[in-house]
Input
Amino acid sequence: MTDDRYFKRTIKKETVPSRHLPEGERALRVYLPPGYNEVLSYPVVYCQDGEDFFNFGRIATIANQIILDDGVEPFIIVGVEVNKKVRTDEYAPDGDRHEAYVRFFGEELIPWIEDRYPVRREPEQRLLAGDSLGGSVSFHIALNYPHLFTRVLSMSGAFFERSLEIMEVPRDLSWLQMYMIVGLQETAYETTDRGVYDFVALNRAAKSLLERYGAELYYEEKDGQHQWGFWQKELPAALKYFLPQA
Output
């Protein structure tokens, strides 16, 4: 297998209309797997920070590789783009735009994709994925729409105070399956707008709360910093954890 096959990617740019978002729309990138056929049906991965997942995470190339070489069943990726200026407002549960973004995701994005692409509609066939605040907003989307999402991939999740407060509320989370990784060099990471945080401590606290209420977790701490150089290396194993073999 030559590397050239990994780079033959089909990525479509789309725009979803929205009643919830102030802009009235949101841009997407949609990856279609090798051998894509509209008469088939596919699992689907929904990524926060869609542009970063494609450009820095190289998720389309990784998807081709694990499909072509590792026997993973072909799947579709939907990367939801974000304006970095309002990213915290949308992704953080105490942000001014958070409720609107979560409602857009559950009530507008999912039906729009499912009307246009042959994706499977069972909750276990959908995966939410995100890094940092993208990991935490993925959890909050699943919490609000458990009939749509039961699986979350969180890479160095930014589980700040409000997220942990929400996790502390007693509830049955036995329906939730999460894959959590965090880098051991993330103990004093300076965020752009919230100060310095120990992401290892935040993720340990989140792990403890999620386990208390019955969530199924894969949790790992390993050498790595709060950056795509770490997360990109972890993506193949994380995706293969959730996605079925062909």
Observations:
- The chain has one domain: 3-242.
- Residues 98-116 form the longest helix (19 residues).
